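Lab channel / #folding
Pinned by the channel admin:
"Please post every new chain as: sequence first, then the structure tokens as a reply. Keep commentary short and put observations after the output so the thread stays searchable."

First post following the new format, from NK:
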Amino acid sequence: MSLRDTLSKPTSSIDPDWLHTASDTTKSLYKAASEEFERLKFLYASGVNISPKDRKINQTTVSKKADKDKSILSARRQPELMQWIQERNLDLVELQARPARPYVKPRSKSDLKSEIAELKAENSTERLSVLRAFVETVFSSNLLDERDILARENFRLKSKIDSLNSRISTLQELNHNQAVEIAMLKNPRSTAKLKIVLKPDNE
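Reply from TO:
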């Protein structure tokens, strides 16, 4: 069980009903006993080595904390409080039976700085790897897109060139015919000869 789970156990978080009508002395003793219980519970959860005589809520310790005579804290004079202390001591016995958390040596400031630097370097490396993979993916995608664009543009230009070549051939033929007609108009004899050559035989 974690330290948080142990400390959040609701055994002492809710005041018992009898405390609301108790005397100031009883309330003071209860407060001291509750604080002692929380302290011991924290020690158990932390895995600290506890002396056998300090492994339960001690009446003498509670009385001293409350600044009261230890004779006041007895089953005859404080029956409800003593019952509550016995129940909390059973809770502590249960905590003893659980495996203690291993003691972890506090890390120094230099250790923390070194760990932070390592984490930053690792994070930076990871970010670069992710960025590199992203760029490569985008680059590959762009290349494919550019290939498609270039292929479509190449097809469009080829079609346009074919269309222009066809128009050029048509214009060249038209220009040739016009040149022949102009030459005929300038030389009527050639035109007459051409007409004679083209005249049918039956005429």
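NK: The helical segments are 3-7, 24-46, 59-65, 79-97, 109-186, 188-198.
TO: also worth noting, The CA atoms of residues 28 and 73 lie 11 Å apart.
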